[in-house]
Design brief:
The protein has three domains: 1-134, 3-Layer(aba) Sandwich (Rossmann fold), CATH 3.40.50; 135-170 and 229-321, Serine Threonine Protein Phosphatase 5, Tetratricopeptide repeat; 323-443, DNA Cyclobutane Dipyrimidine Photolyase, subunit A, domain 3 (Orthogonal Bundle), CATH 1.10.579.10. It has helices spanning 20-28, 54-73, 85-95, 109-122, 154-164, 196-199, 230-243, 250-253, 267-271, 277-290, 295-317, 338-345, 352-364, 369-382, 387-397, 403-413, 427-434, 439-443; strands at 4-10, 29-38, 79-83, 100-104, 128-132. It contains 18 helices and five strands. The chain is α/β, with parallel strands linked by helices. The protein has a five-stranded parallel beta sheet. Bound molecules: flavin-adenine dinucleotide.
Length: 448
């Protein structure tokens, strides 16, 4: 009997560990693994910032190199193409006579438009689409309500989910995969008359946006080197939880600003799926069994529930998440005012605490959660600038950019999101509370 031919489209699930979708594909047939550098991710945002700035481009390249190596060690080859997924994938399916295309579902509005278009383009092609969930910690099918009924207050969501939604156990990485052969000397696809369209978009590391020569200079003041890839993500998990034994103190340290271990720093790996939230959950449970169960161990799961909450909120609200009045549909007075925005983004506001945080972001692609809350509130509520300029700037710069977490948190801190209290941060007081001795500000060159 002919084996099912499967195209596995890697998206933000750039790992082999805890990949139930991949596991399912492996059990069903032979595989062609593909990643697409999507044109829309490398264009500009509506305010003109590069969609994927240098810090995240570097992380992505390292993540893809790592995934390529892992697949090679199992005898496979990752095809990396550049273009529009909804156009390239049907072409590939035709060329490789694919029966089923496997891919994770995304929650972002644009990504969902791509999914719809792909479904349309594959109609009547003979290829079936198999979508699966892998980004959230809790499977949407295990929620106690339909996503359209997601509570608008986090606490209500958390309480219901904690009572009624189990986290599925992670699956181990595959040991064997059967591949769809790609002819030799095709690295990665041979150009023939038939596949010119594809072959001219084939990625070569050296001549693309992911060229190492374009990497930003690394800043020794960064909290962590954040090397991309599944191996580095799992290494960070071991280091933070087990070797450093940091989890027992997480609740006390998580609002810190300096150093690798005040918080987990899992976010860059979580964002592009080189680390699985279910794997983290399982490790926290193992740590609780072997070492200690306390408020801190609970709190890391609590934060991962925030992450899930924003995922499901993006799913529920769709394009509304990106409107100036946010999910609340509020009428707002903030404007796209470039003068204060430029000062904010260039770390020249004159407020040392804000400027230190923005310097950290610009130099490294990372900023603490405490810093992010302050700079977001400052831009939208003190400077009166449209919060979406800030969200887009973060989108460009952040190593851990995640559409749901970024836009959801920005809206939250700009009084148009899920926060029922409409909080505004008193930045001076925050700096006094969290950087009383000015160590953080001095670290980034502000104050003596
Ligand atoms: C304006 C603003 C923008 C943000 N943009 C992003 C983003 O694009 N991507 C992103 O992953 N996080 C974002 N966050 C959330 C949070 O700041 C980061 O997840 C966190 O700082 C990452 O560091 P960590 O992994 O050490 O976090 P830890 O404190 O160790 O938390 C563990 C994990 O829990 C999740 N988490 C923690 N806090 C939040 C939160 N408030 N919302 C959602 N998930 C959370 C993250 O996955 C994080 O890795 C944003 C927050 C704000 C205020």
């Amino acid at each position: 009997m002919k084996k099912e031919r499967i195209l596995y489209w890697f998206r933000r699930d750039l790992r082999l560990d805890d990949q139930p979708g991949l596991q399912h594909a492996i059990e069903r047939g032979t595989l062609l693994p593909v990643y697409i550098l999507e044109d829309r991710d490398f264009g500009t945002t509506s305010y003109g910032f590069p969609k994927t700035g240098g810090h995240r481009a570097r992380l992505l390249r390292e993540s893809l190199e790592d995934l390529s190596d892992s697949l090679s060690s199992l005898g496979g080859e990752l095809l990396i193409l550049k273009g529009e997924a909804e156009v390239l994938l049907p072409e590939l399916c035709r060329q490789f006579d694919i029966d089923t295309l496997f891919a994770m579902r995304e929650v972002g509005w644009d990504e969902r438009q791509t999914q719809h278009q792909l479904e349309t383009n594959l109609k009547e092609s003979g290829t079936t689409l198999f979508w699966f969930w892998t980004h959230p910690m809790i499977h949407p099918k295990d929620l106690p309500f339909d996503v359209r009924e997601l509570p608008d207050v986090f606490t209500q969501f958390r309480k219901e989910v904690e009572k009624r939604s189990p986290v599925r156990p992670p699956v181990s990485k595959p040991e064997q995969i059967e591949w769809i052969p790609i002819e030799q000397n095709t690295s990665p696809i041979q150009a023939t008359d038939r596949d010119q369209v594809i072959s001219h978009r084939v990625l070569k590391w050296g001549d693309t946006l992911l060229n190492p020569a374009l990497d930003p200079v690394s800043d020794p003041r960064a909290v962590h080197p954040f090397h991309g890839g599944e191996k580095a993500g799992l290494q960070r998990l071991r280091e933070y939880i087990w070797e450093g034994d940091n989890l027992r103190r997480y609740k006390e340290t998580r609002n810190g600003l300096l150093g690798a271990d005040y918080s987990s720093k899992f976010s860059p790996w979580l964002a592009n799926g080189t680390l699985s939230a279910r794997r983290i959950y399982a490790e926290v449970k193992r740590y609780e069994e072997k070492r200690i169960t306390n408020e801190s161990t609970y709190w890391l799961i609590f934060e991962l529930l925030w992450r899930d909450y924003f995922q499901f909120s993006a799913l529920k609200y769709g394009a509304r998440l990106f409107s100036s009045g946010g999910i609340q549909g509020k009428s707002v007075t903030q404007k796209a005012d470039w003068e204060p925005f430029d000062k904010w983004s260039k770390a020249q506001t004159g407020d040392d605490f804000i400027d230190a945080n923005m310097t950290e972001l610009n130099q490294t692609g990372f900023m603490s959660n405490r810093g992010r809350q302050n700079v977001a509130s400052f831009l939208s509520q003190d400077l009166g600038v449209d919060w979406r300029m800030g969200a887009e700037y973060f989108e460009s710069l952040l190593l851990d950019y995640d559409v749901a977490s970024n836009w959801g948190n920005w809206a939250y801190n700009s009084t148009v999101g899920h926060d029922p209290r409409n909080r505004k941060f008193d930045v001076e007081r925050q700096a006094w509370m969290y950087d009383r001795n000015h160590r953080y500000r001095k670290h980034w060159g502000f104050g003596s």
